[in-house]
Amino acid sequence: MIQHLPIVPILLPLVAAIVLLRKREGVDPVRRTISITTTTLLVMASLALTLQAADGHIFVYHLGNWPAPWGIVLVVDRLSALMVLLTSLLALCCLMHACSGQDGEGSNFHGLFQLQLMGLNGAFLTGDLFNLFVFFEVLLLASYALLMHGGGKPRVQAGLHYVVLNLAGSSLFLIALGVLYGSLGTLNMADMAQRVSSLPAERTGLVYAGALLLLVVFALKAAMLPLYFWLPRAYSSASAPVGALFAIMTKVGIYAQLRVFTLIFGDQAGQLSGLAQPWLWWGGLATLAVAAVGVLSARDLRIQITYFMLISVGILLCGQGMAAVDSRGALLYYLVHTTLVSGGLLLLADMIADQRGKVGTRIARGRAFHHTTLLGALYFVGAIAMAGLPPLSGAVGKAWLMSTAAFNEALWLWPVLLLSSLAGVIAASRAGSTLFWRRSDGEPGGTHLARGKLIGTASLLATAPLMVILAGPISDYTQATAAQLGATQQYRNAVLSGNTRAQEGVE
Amino acid sequence: MEALYAITTGVLTACGVYMTLRGRTFPVVVGLTLLTYAVNLFLFSMGGLTTHGAALIGQNEAYADPLPQALVLTAIVIGFAMTAFSVILAMRSRGDLGNDSVDGSRTDRDPDQDSRRESKA
Q1: Record: contact B32-A144, CB cut-off 8 A
Q2: Which residue among A2, A381, A478, B101 has its CA within the 20 to 30 Å range from the CA of A389?
Q3: What ipTM was reported for this prediction?
């Protein structure tokens, strides 16, 4: 039974989605129960996977028992397991938030949500580049529909841009796959890594072009500088649970970059090794700088949070461009922190909008409302973590990343990162003081706080202090992950060795 | 044959990119469709072009690489679904926003129509 664990994170949401899609309209307690139960099981399954992967073993699941370079494989190493766990934790909190009413604003929320999870988990687990494309499409198709959940003009408008851009991105992805398959003759990532090392010189140019095309595609998903303009509008106009789940979507791009450019174009790739690093480094710095301006200029809390997400994307891209292995460990720690906290902040923004009525999340004087202490405290925690002030997890991640920079990297990274954090602090404190203190006199308005919304939001924001308390074990894990990413030989051996039984884990 | 194939793919791609960059939703959808066709053709040729060869080993001297054919089938299905979705979305945005501009803004008028209106006036 245990050797089938790697496929569970894909099958479980698929089955749940099929069950949930049978009836289109309305929501009832049964469907909510199915959805929450599935996601809870998903958390447990991904926790089991992470615990198994934690000792450094790489599990390979051969679909249909076809041997590796011919069949499709699922590969669970530390990075995949961590990403799947992160996805399911975020999803569970978003779902709790959604179940207090927002899932009923449109049709089919729960089914689409599960399909989205299936696509995300598949993208993190697969060891085949074409399969990665297929799972990208699954998660994108679900996200197109989820983005439109609830309807309304801003959503349709943002959705149109999002869909068109991603369709163009998919075409580029296919062209890149074509070029790479034509010159390498395989699409299994481990096999590609093997073949890149013995590439004849006349094909280097083609593979280089293919790799850079892939970089563009992943940069579009991750929202790197010239390709980020779709993000603030799309994420801020989506309904809160969807926007919060989308916090993991940019990380799919980061994950794909990490996987492809450390495995296929890693140290063994000769001339082609490290070809993406300078692009990621300079692109990351530029994203960071522009996003800091965006944070300062935002007039709406949701837009501001999406620009905070972009700051973190910039930091994650810079981390990939740095030479030290430790930087990747720091990057992964920061990735976990930023996904959970930015998701939590988007959920919180929705709760604040509920209370403020017409003004919504605009950073302007609004009516007085109830529950200011509770919401204010949650915002305080979230904003401190997101802006990167000590003592919460954002500061730990940023400080760790800065400490791993070599001298010539630090010359660029330190000023840009610190100035962007300063911009973040200024913007967040201005937004917070306006939202909570600049209120008109009079009878406080607002509704009561739904329990599900509160639990979902608070548990996401609670990860900020938790990740500081548990910083030891988490950083050990991310550091080991970074080391495993660097040791590509182990990954290739695990996938390509003929002895499949031994690789499938303990029976 | 290679030259013809390459020219066809190139022309399709160029038309697709041009149409995708237009300001109205209908040309954009058509552009995306053309782009998908071009990509499918490209993907099909990535294992090399073989004439008179089935994708079976041992039937014939020449055989075609079966993997691109399988991949292109997947890509066609996905591309078709995406096109259908974008058509529906374009119609929805026409209905909701009241015009078919990609930005949804009324000020973004068609210059041809404007000049016609001016000449009438």
Answers
A1: no
A2: A478
A3: 0.86
> Are B97 and A156 within 8 A, CB to CB?
yes
Query: How many domains does chain A fold into?
Result: 1
Contact B32/A at CB under 8 A: yes
User: Of A292-301, A333-342, A352-361, which range is least confident?
Assistant: A352-361
Domain that holds residue A292: 276-488
Under the banding of pLDDT at 50, 70 and 90, the label for residue A500 is very low
Q: Is B50 on the interface with A (CB under 8 A)?
A: no
Q: Nearest chain A residue to B69 by CA: give it.
A: A178
Contact A313, A342 (CB under 8 A): no
- CB contact under 8 Å between A153 and B104, yes or no, is yes
Per-domain boundaries in chain B: 1-48+67-101
Are A159 and B47 inside 8 Å of each other by CB? no
A438 domain-assigned:
yes
Q: For residue A484, tell me if it sits in a domain.
A: yes
Contacts of B45 in chain A (CB under 8 A): 178
pLDDT tens for A27-39 read 788 889 999 999 9
Nearest CA in chain B to A173: B39
Per residue in A384-422, pLDDT tens? 999 988 889 999 999 999 999 988 889 999 999 999 999
Of A227, A253, A196, the C-alpha closest to A488 is A196
Whole-angstrom distance, CA of residue A208 vs CA of residue A210 = 5
Model confidence at A504: pLDDT above 50: no
Determine, yes or no, domain membership for A75. Answer: no
CATH of domain B1-48+67-101: 1.10.287.3510
Q: What is the DSSP letter of A390?
A: T
DSSP run (H or E) holding A60 = strand A59-62
Identify the H or E element spanning A74: strand A73-76
Looking at the partner chain, which of B32, B36, B81 has a beta carbon nearest the beta carbon of A164?
A: B32
